[in-house]
Amino acid sequence: MPIPTVDLRDPSDEVARQLDAACSEIGFMQIVGHGIDAALEHEAWNCAAAFFALSDEAKMAVAIPDGDAYGYGPFQVERLAASRGDVSPPDLKETFSIGPFVDAQQTEEFIAQDPAAAFAYSPNRWPVELSEMAQVMQRFYDELGALCARLLSLMAEGLGMPADTFASAIDRHTSALRLLHYPHVETADVVPGQLRAGAHSDYGTLTLLRQDDAPGGLEVRGSDNEWHAIPAQDGAYVVNIGDALERWTAGRWRSTLHRVQIPPATSGSNQRQSIAFFHNANWDALIDVLEPCRPAHGRVDPPITAGRHLMERFLSTQQGE
Fold first, then answer.
1. C-alpha to C-alpha distance for 22 and 1, rounded to whole angstroms
2. Can you give the residue range of the structural domain that contains 224?
3. pLDDT tier, 140 (very low <50, low <70, confident <90, very high otherwise)
């Protein structure tokens, strides 16, 4: 079940139509012609690899404190399947998460308006061993945020709405850039039900994923109820719809289950790396069904702020067994 590839260099009306079709039919696509600087991508990728190559002591020095969102997430701590209420063994990965780059005054203003926003605006943490990491990741974060804004503008047009439909809801977005490392795994050491990343849907608006082609990769659950591999495509980003955008469109656009599979026993070296950008709306943005998506009959979820929606979903993944 191949997912569609959308070339953003095509005429905008055609791109808008293709994006709407992909969001409606499967909720996943690959995009090319996105304009992200290849040199910056390479720099960010190498920086991520250098971080995960640090000693455990150095990585734990920037571990995520309880109640915060950003920093190092050690191996086998997260359980993504828990966000769906499933009980599962811990995921076979380690992570490094990066949040919005805002100054202290802005952070204080946001938290004064809603103390719960402290979660989304918790501080970024940087290893002293990699002095260039903060600057590289901030540049990459900003480019990916701009790409998401461009995609959402085209997607709004695909709904027959103005291009700036989402603009006021994402101009202070609380997105997270996440570096992921899946160490080499011996299948004999994997416990029943364990995956590199358990089956889940993403929580925000859009996810952009840059992945390598190592064994044991991304799989998407299709309309046939089967799992299908999404191979790495040179120069492309995998894009998928998150729960917030599914809610915004009353289910017209699909937030689809996906997972990262255990590599085959015969795969040899299977260490894997990827970088995901989880785009989230402004903390106080109201997720209310867009007019073209309102069903004539049936239930519509009540409005919710993007921040509360995000926090509830994220914290559910940190639950123990």
1. 13
2. 5-316
3. very high
Buried b (16+ CB within 10 A) or exposed e, 170-203: beebbbbbbbbbbeebeeeebeeebbbbbbbbbb
Residue 320, classified by CB atoms within 10 Å of its CB into exposed (0-12), middle (13-18) or buried (19+), is exposed
* Assigned domain for 177 exists: yes
Q: What is the CATH number of the domain that holds 9?
A: 2.60.120.330
d(Cα 239, Cα 237) in Å, to the nearest integer?
A: 6
Could you give the C-alpha distances from 248 to 113, 243, 279, in angstroms and in order?
24, 9, 14
Cα–Cα distance, 29 to 41 (Å, whole number): 20
Q: Is residue 115 part of a domain?
A: yes
The pLDDT score that the predictor gives to residue 86 is 82
- Structure token digits, residue 76: 């086998």
Q: How far apart are CA 49 and CA 140, in angstroms?
A: 15
* DSSP per-residue codes, 286-320: EE---GGG--SSS--PPPEEHHHHHHHHHHHTT--
DSSP string over 93-108: -EEEEE-----HHHHH
Half-sphere exposure (CA, 13 Å, Cβ side) for 288?
Answer: 7
- Number of domains, the chain: 1
**Mean pLDDT of the 72-77 span:** 95
- The Cβ of residue 145 has, within 10 Å, a number of other Cβ atoms equal to 19
Which three-class secondary structure string do you get for 108-153?
Answer: HHHHHHCHHHHCCCCCCCCCCCCCCHHHHHHHHHHHHHHHHHHHHH
Residue 103 CB burial class (10 angstroms; 0-12, 13-18, ≥19): exposed
In the predicted model, is pLDDT for residue 1 greater than 80? no
Count Cβ atoms below 10 Å from residue 11 Cβ, excluding itself: 8
Confidence of residue 266 (pLDDT cuts 50, 70, 90): confident
Task: Using the structure block, give the residue that is written with the tokens 């709407």.
Answer: 20
229 in helix, strand or coil? strand
For the full predicted model, state whether its pTM sits above 0.90. Answer: yes
Instruction: Please give the backbone phi and psi of residue 106, each rounded to the nearest 5 degrees, phi first.
Output: -60, -45
Residue 321 lies in a domain: no
